[in-house]
């Protein structure tokens, strides 16, 4: 809900909180992590560059097993018009096992 807030400061704060979550402590909550990944992928299209950047940072901190569930969507972001998003996507993809790609 906070990721959709009308105030950009609230959205940025929500993304920063998600980025600080310890993925290793949440492995038993795969559905939550998957939802987090989906939310961050959606934020890659946000109009605010700071939100896009924070979303990429958060994606990069998720467990590779969670990212693997969203690999097709993440790979598609290699065509994103924002160079920061494209670069961060590459950094996320190199963390994945080759057989996932």
TrEMBL record:
It comes from the Eukaryota. Pfam families: HEAT_2. SUPFAM superfamilies: ARM repeat. InterPro entries: ARM-like, ARM-type_fold. This is HEAT repeat domain-containing protein. It comes from Haptolina ericina.
